[in-house]
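Hi all, posting the design record for the shared folder.

TITLE: backbone redesign
STEP: 1 of 1
STRUCTURE INPUT:
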């Protein structure tokens, strides 16, 4: 199946319009379209379109309805498969230690899914810790730094 760039960006524009259409069913249906469409655009060189849609799906992570939460998390997981766990980790790191418990819960839920399904790909994405002193153990990753 060959997909050209014009059809991908046309469909992304349509999904972008449907995400902001104020209807529960339209939003729910659009999230499932994004779920399946992100697998289609995987390895086509159009991952920027998936990042664009992820930027508009991510604020809906705090929805109240269980069906919408499941659809949003499914869309985020599909973007994880398409883009890689290191991209989604950059979104998740901002809320892991938030003061509000409800914010932390959903961010840790997404992080646990990232860790379970892509822990080997997350190792290079973790920030390096500086050496504190001589009494503290060193957490350097010298071999990994050599290969990167």
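Okay, here is what came back for every position:
SEQUENCE:
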């Amino acid at each position: 199946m060959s997909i050209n760039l014009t059809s991908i960006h046309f469909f992304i524009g349509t999904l972008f319009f449907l995400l902001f259409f104020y209807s529960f069913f339209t939003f729910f249906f659009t999230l499932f379209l994004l779920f399946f469409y992100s697998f289609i655009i995987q390895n086509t060189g159009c991952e920027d379109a998936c990042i664009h849609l992820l930027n508009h799906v991510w604020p809906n992570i705090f929805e109240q309805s269980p069906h919408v939460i499941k659809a949003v998390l499914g869309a985020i997981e599909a973007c994880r498969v398409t883009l890689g766990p290191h991209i989604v980790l950059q979104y998740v790191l901002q809320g892991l230690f938030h003061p509000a418990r409800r914010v932390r819960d959903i961010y840790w839920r997404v992080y646990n899914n990232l860790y379970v399904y892509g822990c080997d790909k997350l190792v290079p994405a973790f920030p390096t810790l500086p050496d504190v002193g001589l009494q503290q153990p060193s957490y350097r990753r010298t071999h990994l730094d050599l290969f990167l």
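COMMENT: Residues 27 and 97 are 29 Å apart (CA to CA).
Let me know if anyone wants the other runs.
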